[in-house]
Structure to design on (131 residues):
């Protein structure tokens, strides 16, 4: 898609970046042809009692799981990189009211969230109930 629509495709990585690193390895122009890379990774100061961060508040799964892939992706020649840390994820909750409001939108992103969100409001920070 980045070749078909140069500088118009945003790549979103909400998990380990193994697949994005593979795309870069297979196509050296992949990153530079994208509009931007948006990742969820890292932690600044997560305020939570979740066990994952109690003893290691800077530890974060998406970057930790495949550090070699993370290195490849973050060193690639992206026009722009935006990062949301786990801090934002912990504070963000998808509620049933939020899903109802999204149903009124014609936005492709809103339609995607409505279609794939399961059990809105279930769980704690760090999860939005998407499957």
């Amino acid at each position: 898609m980045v070749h078909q629509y140069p500088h118009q495709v945003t790549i979103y990585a909400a998990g380990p970046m193994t697949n994005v690193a593979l795309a870069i390895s297979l196509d050296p122009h992949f990153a530079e042809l994208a509009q931007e890379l948006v990742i969820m990774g890292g932690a600044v100061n997560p305020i939570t009692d979740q066990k994952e961060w109690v003893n290691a508040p800077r530890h974060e799964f998406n970057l930790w799981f495949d550090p070699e892939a993370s290195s490849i992706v973050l060193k690639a020649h992206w026009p722009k990189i935006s990062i949301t840390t786990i801090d934002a994820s912990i504070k963000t909750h998808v509620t049933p009211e939020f899903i109802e409001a999204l149903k009124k939108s014609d936005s492709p992103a809103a339609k995607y969230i409505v279609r794939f969100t399961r059990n809105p409001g279930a769980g704690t920070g760090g999860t939005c109930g998407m499957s």
In short: DSSP finds eight helices and three strands in the chain. The first strand starts at residue 10 and ends at 13. Residues 18-26 form the longest helix (9 residues).
